[in-house]
Amino acid sequence: MTYQGGEMQGEQLVLEDRSPRARRRWLLIGGLVALIAAAVAWYVLRPKGEETPPATAASQAPAVTVIVPGAESVARIISATGTLAATREMPVGVAGEGGMVSRVLVEPGQWVRAGQVLATIDRSVQAQTAQSLAAQINVAKSDLTLAQAELERAQSLVDRGFISKADVQRRIATRDAARARLQVAQATLSEQRARNARLDIRAPAAGLILTRGVEPGQIVSSGSGMLFRMAKGGEMEMRAQLAEGDLQVVRVGSPAKVVPVGDTRAFPGSVWQVAPVIDPQTRQGIARIKLSYDPALRPGGFASATITAGGARQPELPQSALLSDEKGNYVYIVDAQNKVERRAVTLGTVADDRVAIASGLNGDERVVQSAGAFLNPGQTVRPQRAKPTATR
After folding, report:
1. Residues 291 and 266: beta-carbon distance below 8 Å
2. pTM of the entire structure?
3. For 351-375, how does the pLDDT look when each residue is reduced to its tens digit (9 = 90+)?
4. Of 64, 89, 294, 363, whose CB neighbour count within 10 A is largest?
5. What is the DSSP string of 266-326?
6. CA dist 149 → 152, 163, 168, 175, 344 (Å)
7. Separation of alpha carbons 200 and 95, rounded Å
């Protein structure tokens, strides 16, 4: 390479070279030098107010989405198990003196009306007694008729002097005694007939026969115990076992759904009685759920129930906001200094996508919506409010 000469004019360098490749290289170098000089000039001459601020800890903090749940009226769903039973179970036994059962007229599962005969007891001896008492009444009526006639004759003769007034008084007493004997005979017959009627075992009220414990030929008495079990009106119920805390929020009239074991249907009902006492051994009480009759509701069977308790105002969170460890359930909230704080919570009703918070939150906190597992208590974050969505 041979240079023919060069001349410096200001900042321009003129080079002569017979090689085109060398000329392009020197032009590239000159462009880079000019670019560097322009950058240095801008840095020296720039206004002081345009300095780039250094990076801060806040700008480097991770961004998290937060929600303010508020508080809404949340219906508490309580799950329970228990047994089915008749709402009013009536044991039916012998009310009279008893004897040998001659006929049984009903079977379990049969509906009966009030006063219907369920079984009869042999009354051959009692019937003869009733006939004897009826005959005594006829004798007493005859005695009374005769005494009345004698009294009337004596009264017609006393004015003529044929009979004394003392005789008339005696005949009046005889007539009254005959009348009293008639009344006694009538009362005795009525008593015997009542006894005979009690030999019929009758339904005390309309309802459904649940069990039968007697057969024809069996000797029964007032000490024989229960011969039939009835459900008054066919009304059924579930006696749900509830924990002490759940029993506090259940009220009479709370709606419920009952599913018997072996059935997929849910039978609607409502709580009609809440136990006034707690079992000291199990720490549980009973809520009685009234149900309409259905053949699938068999007393003594096992069933599960869900009871909708009263609506308390509670915050609701998406399930993504909840975390748990060996210490229990918790959420992360962001305080006024944008620092993460752990808050223990107690869960309430759990829905498909949301969970009610029974305790631990007031509803005005900024709760981390998700990604809480990657945060640590005391960590600084950049909170961003989530877009409002429907809560239910």
Report:
1. no
2. 0.55
3. 767 788 878 888 888 888 886 777 8
4. 64
5. -EEEEEEEE-SS--TTT-EEEEEEEE---TT--TT-EEEEEEEEEEEEE-EEEGGG-EEET
6. 5, 15, 12, 9, 104
7. 9
